[in-house]
Amino acid sequence: MTVSFAYDALDRRLYKKSHAKYRDRRQAGPLWNENQRRQLNEQLGTRWRLFDAVA
Predict the structure, then answer these.
(1) Pairing between strand 13-19 and 2-7?
(2) Which of 8, 39, 40, 53 could form a disulfide linkage to 20, CB 3.0–4.6 angstroms apart?
């Protein structure tokens, strides 16, 4: 799983973006690989999460 964060100037977390690592299968087409990647992300519950920047 890969996770990235963004922070504002006051070092408050703005968002978190996570997604599963998925290696494409060479014998499969690009749409099949994209669908498998999407299904894996749904199973693991990965997505964008926005945080309130209110202190």
Answers:
(1) antiparallel
(2) 40
